[in-house]
Amino acid sequence: MQERRFPASAGILFGLGLGGFFDGIILHQLLQWHHMLSSWYPANTIENLELNTRWDGIFHSSTYLFVIAGLFILWRTAHRRHLFWSTKLLVGTMLIGFGAFNVIEGIVDHHLLGVHHVNETVEGRYRIYWDIGFIVWGAAMLIIGWYLLRQGRRESAPAMRAGR
Question: What pLDDT, on a 0 to 100 scale, did the predictor assign at position 98?
Answer without folding.
Answer: 94
